[in-house]
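User:
I would dearly like some help making sense of a protein record. Take your time, and here it is.
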Amino acid sequence: MKLRQLHYIQEVARRGLNVTAAAEALFTSQPGVSKQIRLLEDELGIEIFVRNGKHLTEITPAGERILEHAERVLRDVQNIERVAEEFRYSDRGDLSIATTHTQARYALPNVIDRFRRDYPRVSLHLHQGSPPQIARMAASGEVDFAVATEAMEHFDDLVMLPCYHWNRCILVPPDHPLAQSKGQLALSELGEHPLITYTFGFTGRSKLDQAFAARGIRPNVVLTAVDADVIKTYVRLGLGVGIVAHMAYDPEADKDLVMRPADHLFEASTTHIGFRRGLFLRRFMYDFIEHFAEHLTPELVDEMAGISDPVQRRARAAEMQSSLPSH
């Protein structure tokens, strides 16, 4: 049995049993991957994958168990390599982060700029995706950190650390009726206009839907996007009222739009940063977390990582949320 073979079966499973896609991700040939999988199966005396002709169709029950152990072995190997790197080159390495567009565009730039100045020899890799994709990438080891707000139920396999609260704002052109109204906006006023906001499952969209549902209002959402800049573009075209994360509003760049606060209308959302349990965190990884959320000291990170029960981790995270800053 070779580590390379474990990498191959893991990647094939990760790529939906598409051997060609796995081979491309591994920078090798499809026949080479197929051959090594067959050799591993012959050595073990069982089939890991069910085949229909030349195609893999499903993972066998034995294969499921083997893949679980293979993932742990490969994770331990990666941690061994990280320990060696930490003692050999403490200020260099790689750090990969998966997040949504809003976090990548508005929350992370200053953090990454500071981190790059502190660790110029660390290569940063930023991946964007939906919350389920982000969770999957972090849980599988494709990335080191996940930064997300929405769909926390997908992140049970990860140590998720609450970073900060944030809320939304309303954006309209200067000649829009909501730009002229006095006092705080009411949810019923928003319900009278076509709305442009985030795609469901992104950037706290569930809090928005919950607020309207609680008041018995059916919002007229005419356009959704994962990108706040796209939302603002269509607000400028007069297609509707924009509802975006407050951090996405730039008084200078968006001075042609009128911003109305909406924190009284919607429950605040909480952004988390997370990693899979058992991951060896290098010093620069601790520093990145603390740059992103200064209350997340290495001691607190280690405390959360040491809680094995997901229910207890969520309870501890809920305690921490009461004192989080707002963005």
Summary: Residues 61-88 form the longest helix (28 residues). The mean pLDDT is 90.
